[in-house]
Inverse folding.
């Protein structure tokens, strides 16, 4: 695991581009950290939110890394609320506070299992990062991505190897991405599943893989206030009892360790 540098640091947006429903930010990182696929950062706009008496305080938001090179980080986000709206409106040259990389990332396949990467919506970034990481090891993964419609699925056009499902059938398979996963496991169950996406999708993948005895690593998402395990606001129940904190014990957890993926995750 790559340890996070102490404290937050200032980065600068070098590129902000709209791809369908999402915004992809490229941000400089003076610490030149090398995050692992599945790890995350806490991001906050350096100015323009929480800066005046009439503005609401702004807690940083947690985002999985979509890609990384020396001194550069990529993130994908959707404008769905005041915090993400502020980040989505950032322009080239504007500053961002970075804290990270945080948490535990994905672990490599074992026992010759083929990797199946399955995700949806804003859960796509860590899977894109992991796809590139696996290919660097000479491993070609199966990539399954689900979206609500063509507008949201537009980001998948940058990943031509991906199989796509949309709720309305406007691109690819009409239905849930988990239906594509079932077909892949029926074809060859000697696999390991890596997943990230909305809670309902992750819970369906968890239950499916546990039932079929297929190992799966779930990159859980949750609203986080701190990212360091202090607030206990992002816990998930464990099969053996007790709870894990997504920010420090995860965000990647084995499906068999998790009792269920709660709706808030």
């Amino acid at each position: 695991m790559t340890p996070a540098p102490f404290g937050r640091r200032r980065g600068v947006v070098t590129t902000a581009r709209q791809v369908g429903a999402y915004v992809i930010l490229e941000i400089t990182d003076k610490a030149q950290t090398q995050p692992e696929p599945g790890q995350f950062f806490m991001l906050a706009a350096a100015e323009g939110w929480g800066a005046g008496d009439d503005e609401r305080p702004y807690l940083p938001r947690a985002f999985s890394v979509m890609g990384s090179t020396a001194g550069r980080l990529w993130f994908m986000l959707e404008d769905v609320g005041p915090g993400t709206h502020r980040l989505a409106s950032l322009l080239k040259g504007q500053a961002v506070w970075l804290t990270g990389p945080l948490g535990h990332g994905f672990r490599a396949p074992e026992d010759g299992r083929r990797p199946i990467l399955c995700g949806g919506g804003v859960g796509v970034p860590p899977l894109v990062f992991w796809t590139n990481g696996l290919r660097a090891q000479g491993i070609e993964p199966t990539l399954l991505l689900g979206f609500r419609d063509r507008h949201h699925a537009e980001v998948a056009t940058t990943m031509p190897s991906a199989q796509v499902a949309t709720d309305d059938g406007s691109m690819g398979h009409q239905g849930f991405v988990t239906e594509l996963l079932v077909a892949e496991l029926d074809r060859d169950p000697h696999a390991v599943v890596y997943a990230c996406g909305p809670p309902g999708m992750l819970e369906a993948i968890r239950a499916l893989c546990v039932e079929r005895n297929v190992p799966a690593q779930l990159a859980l998402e949750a609203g986080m206030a701190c990212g360091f395990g202090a607030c206990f606001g992002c816990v998930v129940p464990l099969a053996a009892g007790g709870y894990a904190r997504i920010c420090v014990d995860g965000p990647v957890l084995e499906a068999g360790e998790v009792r269920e993926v709660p709706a808030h995750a």
